[in-house]
Amino acid sequence: MKQRNKEGLAAIALMVRNVYGVHFGLNLAVQAMARTQPDPELVAAILRDAAERTLEIEDNEPYPEAFRDGMLTVVNGVLNALKRGGQE
Q1: Exposed e or buried b for every residue in 26-37, given b needs 16+ CB within 10 A?
Q2: Beta carbons within 8 Å of 37's beta carbon, 6+ residues apart
Q3: Which of 46, 29, 39, 21 is CA-nearest to residue 54?
Q4: What distances in angstroms separate CA 46 from CA 6, 55, 75, one per listed residue?
Q5: b/e map of 67-78 (b: 16 or more CB within 10 Å)?
Q6: pLDDT tens per residue, range 13-30
Q7: Do 73 and 38 form a contact (C-beta atoms < 8 A)?
Q8: Euclidean distance between CA atoms 36 and 34, whole angstroms
Q9: Is the pTM of this model over 0.85?
């Protein structure tokens, strides 16, 4: 039984790493697109509004801390990419 548990945990760990890799790749793609936007201020305003509306839902039912932290990491990364524009 212990071997099965170890195998199950290893499979879960692999799935988590896969999800993290997919998330990381999508974040890089979004940041690359953000740097090429003709109106970065408009994109930033829309993103901030969407993030604020999403976080307002927490007033009724809090998100898990890891979800909130992950979302804000992506949002802030995209906002920073918008600020940098094509400066890299």
Answers
A1: ebeebbeebbee
A2: 43, 82
A3: 46
A4: 45, 14, 11
A5: eeeeeeebbeeb
A6: 999 999 989 888 998 999
A7: no
A8: 5
A9: no
